Amino acid sequence: MAGSSTTSVASGVTTRTNSLKRKAATQENIGAELQQPPRKLAAIAEADTNQPLRPSKTAPNSTNLNGAGTGPSKLGRGPPPLTKPRAPTLSTSTSTNAVRRTTRATSAPPKTAPVRPPARPMSRTTTRPGTSTANDERFDSIQQQIARIEAARAADAARLDAELAQERAKRSDLQASHEALSRELTNAKTQEIAQRQELFIASDELNNLRQRHEREISELQADLRRKDRELRELNEDLRICQADLERERDTVKSLKATIAQQATSQLSLTAQLGALQAEKAAVQAEFDRTCGTKADLAIQLERAHKRIADLEREAREGESVRRKLHNMVQELKGNIRVFVRVRPVLRSDIITTTFNLSGGSFGAITDGTGSPDPEEEARMREEAMAPIAFPDKMDHREIVLRASSESATGQERKDEWQFTFDRVFEPHSTQAEVFEEISQLAQSCTDGYNVCVFAYGQTGSGKSFTMEGGSVRSSSSTANHVVTQPIGQSDVTAGMIPRAVEQVFRVADDLRSKGWQYKMEGQFLEIYNETINDLLGKGEFDKKKHEIKHDPKTGRTTVTDVNVVPLASATQVRTLLAVAQGRRTVAATLMNERSSRSHSVFTLRIRGENALTGESCEGSLNLVDLAGSERLEKSGAAGDRERLKETQNINKSLSALGDVIAALGEKGEGKSDKHIPYRNSKLTYLLQNSLSGNSKTLMFLNLSPLATHLHESLCSLRFATKVNNTTIGTAKKQTKHIP
Ligand SMILES: Nc1ncnc2c1ncn2[C@@H]1O[C@H](COP(=O)(O)OP(=O)(O)OP(=O)(O)O)[C@@H](O)[C@H]1O
Predict the structure, then answer these.
(1) The pLDDT of residue 81
(2) Is residue 255 assigned to a domain?
(3) Angle at CA 172, nearest 5°, toward 168 and 173?
(4) How far is the CA of 59 from the centre of ligand 1 (A)?
(5) Confidence band (pLDDT; 50, 70, 90) for 552?
(6) What secondary structure letter does DSSP report for 399?
(7) Separation of CA 454 and ligand 1 centre (Å)
(8) Which of 153, 221, 369, 637 minimizes the number of CB atoms within 10 Å of its CB?
(9) Of 242, 268, 294, which marks where a domain is finished?
(10) Residue range 406-438, pLDDT digits in tens
(11) Compositionally biased, Polar residues: which spans (predicted)?
């Protein structure tokens, strides 16, 4: 069987495996059946070995001696059924005894059944005399019957014995054949186990074969996919190659066309070449002619260079003349010139004025949402402004203040004050317009003059804005703020100090081409409560004692223990200004929330040498931002000791300045022995050399445009008029020739 299964594997593994399984199952059933002993034989064996044959209990009346059921026995043909009724007493016991005897007869050799003596008739005495003969006859017939039955039984017993012997012989045959079959079964089982092992081995082999086969199939499939891919790539290559080929064919076609064209154009080029060669010959002839003129031109160029050098020298001389004339003009304008500048009305002014007028409410100029109503704001602006007029629209030199008041008699009195200065700037004037007027003055210091520009006016009138500018001032609240950008178009609020410094550096740069080399250095001081503080220093304010020293020989003013910083560029100066501003003492007053309660003095010293002309010069530019000039009761400082002291010191130094200017004026008018009280304040003593007749001085009078400040403005204008009318002498240039 194993052999046939293996053959089947070769033809179809899966089908064969199933059939093998089915066959194995059939074998198993056969084996199981073989293991079962034959039922009939077992029954016989059991009956033989375990118990003697007995009649079945289920058939008490049966004459079947082998007890195999109720049907007719194979062994006995049994006595025919009794046709006559038996005596009740005998029939019962006889039948019972007969059965019992029959049963015994199966296990013991048959005996001749003892014939029992007939039972004594019980009712003979009582029987009637007519019936006794009949009973005897019946009794005899019964006994005969019994005898017949006994005889039949004996015959049956003999027959049964014979049959039993036969059966036993059969049984031993059957046992023999059973043993033979058992041996066969054992052999069959052994064979089956062997076949099963073979089957398992074959099944393992089959599994291995199947796995290998699956592996081979998957490898073949991968191979197939790879081949497919390669085929696709080859197809793609082929397509590209075909496209390339097409293109190449097109190229070849167009190249052929080009070659044909080239051949045509070559012909025309050859013709052109001939023409060009003829032209070249003509140009060569022209070139030869030009070479001849080149030598003439070189001579002319040399002459032109000489002429340029002459013109440059003339320009330098012209520059010197221009400087002389410029300074003459400046001198003719007067030594102390006064510019008046009225600042515009600020929104904060309107708010303050409205607040004061409305008795402490901002609602008047707001539209309810907090933002100002433009029309209302314009009206309030008009209302807040003092009646100031600028009648001179040509030269911008006049300013008129008007005021109406009630006289003692109740009549309206109209007052008007007219002032004339060197220049009056209206509120809309820009920083650039203002600087244009002083740029010439700032430039003078590069010519060796001492220049002093100071801003005078009440607190909040715009002094710092004019001198330092809006952006510098506003950004200077942080000491570390560094201004690195030069003044550009965007920096429209840059003030006079950064603009003047930039101008000086620009002029110095321009003059470099004329042989001038400049060295500059700067210092920035503050005078607060008659104490000098170094705004560029590192030490704490009011701690170091700085002394002012004047050198009568050189006319140079120095201050001890202050930082004098060499300046390389205007940008660096602006950085210094920002640092200095952060250190300025700013205290709050009622007049201006950012009021500067000190004078600040920026000094730029410039020394120049001209290697070409052998000249040297030394000038200085002092730019002074004075502290507010308001009167004590207006400043709101009366109740504060510290503020009071500040205001007194400010007023003292400002009146000292007025005294010095007045004394200088008197001296200029001929009182040569007039004492000039420079020492009355630190400010006048520091500016001594810049205020004396040896310098060019300009005062900016800054005015507030507000009606509420009209009186302060009038006082300032009167002071400025005095200064403007003062002649302090002719400014002298500090130049010399380098030996
Ligand atoms: N010409 C102007 N244009 C616009 N705003 C100006 C002008 N002049 C001054 N201001 C503004 O007015 C305010 C007061 O000006 P500023 O601080 O320069 O006054 P000040 O006279 O220097 O005051 P203080 O004496 O307290 O230093 C500032 O907010 C400033 O920006």
Answers:
(1) 44
(2) yes
(3) 115
(4) 149
(5) confident
(6) E
(7) 15
(8) 369
(9) 268
(10) 777 777 888 899 999 989 999 999 999 999 888
(11) 48-67, 89-106, 123-134
CA angle 161, 165, 170 (to 5 degrees): 145
Q: Which of 341, 343, 624 to mutate to test the pocket of ligand 1 (most atoms within 8 A of CB)?
A: 343
* Rounded Cα distance, 512 and 610, in Å: 9
639, 640, 644, 645: CA torsion to nearest 10: 150
Which atom, in ligand 1's list, is nearest to the CA of 596?
Answer: 27
Q: What is the pLDDT of residue 577?
A: 79
Best CA proximity match to 532, nearest among 659, 697, 653:
653
Same domain, 215 and 338: no
Q: Which residue has the tokens 């375990």?
A: 50
CA of 703 to the centre of ligand 1 (A): 10
Contact criterion met (CB below 8 Å) for 606 and 445: yes
Q: Give residue 84's pLDDT band: very low, low, confident or very high (50, 70, 90).
A: very low
For the chain, percent of residues with pLDDT exceeding 90: 33
Q: In the Cβ-directed half-sphere of 22, how many Cα atoms lie within 13 Å?
A: 6
Distance from C-alpha of 344 to C-alpha of 106, rounded to nearest angstrom: 159
The per-residue pLDDT for 639 is 61
Backbone angles phi, psi at 517, to 5 degrees: -120, 125
What is the distance between the alpha carbons of residues 252 and 354, in angstroms, rounded to a whole number?
94
pLDDT value of position 406: 76
pTM: 0.55
Same domain, 533 and 639: yes
Q: Would the CB of 464 count as within 6 Å of ligand 1?
A: yes
Residues 247 and 339 in one domain: no
Alpha carbon nearest to ligand 1 atom 9, residue: 462
CATH number at residue 695: 3.40.850.10
Assess whether pLDDT exceeds 60 at residue 349.
Answer: yes
Contact 491, 479 (CB under 8 A): no
In a domain, 639, yes or no: yes
CA angle, residues 626, 528, 607, in degrees to nearest 5: 65
How, if at all, do strands 516-528 and 599-610 pair? antiparallel
Of 372 and 289, which is predicted with more confidence? 289
Q: Quickly count: other Cβ atoms within 10 Å of residue 52's Cβ.
A: 11
| Partner residues linked to 403 by β-bridges | 415
Query: Ligand 1 pocket: which of 342, 348, 458, 464 to mutate (most atoms <8 Å of CB)?
Result: 464
Interstrand relation of 336-342 and 423-425 (parallel, antiparallel or unpaired):
parallel
How does DSSP classify residue 118? Answer: P
Amino acid identity at 232: R
Together in a domain, 230 and 337: no
At 339 the pLDDT is 94
Q: Mean pLDDT over residues 321-325, rounded?
A: 71
Token representation of residue 461 = 């009138």
Q: From the alpha carbon of 627, which atom of ligand 1 is closest?
A: 25
Answer whether 699's CB lies under 8 Å from 720's CB: yes
Ligand 1 within 6 A of CB of 628: yes
Cα 571 to ligand 1 centre (Å) = 24
Distance from the alpha carbon of residue 623 to the mean position of ligand 1, in angstroms: 17
Residue pair 502/508 in contact (Cβ under 8 Å)? The answer is no
Does residue 580 lie within any of the structural domains? yes
Domain count, the chain: 2
The answer, yes or no, to whether any atom of ligand 1 lies below 6 A from the CB of 462, is yes
> 673 or 116, which is more confident?
673
